[in-house]
Write a structure and sequence with these properties.
5-stranded parallel beta sheet; alpha/beta; 5 helices; about 130 residues; globular; Rossmann fold; single chain
Length: about 130
């Protein structure tokens, strides 16, 4: 169990959440959060290897979640966070990057396969 890699998917769209879950089945243990508060609770409990983070969320937006992760005092503050959002404006991308996003993907511009490939690349880079 110690070798289990958890992916935390923070997404309030149930269709995309299901699609990602089926894609990761067998490769990773996937955790799901539908809002920012739930995301931080799961992050604290499971210490995921990577986070897929939507920005437009109820209760606490993804920017606040990202900032909270990066402000941690332990090694988990360096967990890769891939933002996957419908927000495609440069100011949103720049804000996420300045808060410490590892990657920024615009949902309308990428396929689920591309998201999975990006996760693989980031995890391989982290393991090296």
């Amino acid at each position: 169990m110690a070798d289990t890699k958890f992916i935390l998917v923070v997404e309030d769209d149930p269709i995309l959440k299901n699609l990602l879950g089926h894609t990761f089945a067998g490769k990773y243990q996937t955790l799901y959060a539908s809002d920012g508060n739930e995301a931080l609770a799961l992050f604290e409990q499971y210490k995921p290897a990577i986070v897929l983070l939507d920005l437009m969320l109820p209760t606490m937006d993804g920017f606040a979640v990202l900032e909270n992760i990066r402000n941690r005092k332990d090694a988990t503050k360096n967990v890769p966070v891939i933002v996957v959002s419908n927000l495609g404006q440069e100011k949103d991308k720049e804000r996420a990057k300045s808060l410490g996003a590892t990657e920024y993907l615009v949902k309308a511009e990428v396929s689920v396969e591309e998201i999975v490939a990006r996760i693989q690349t980031v995890l391989e880079r982290e393991a090296a």
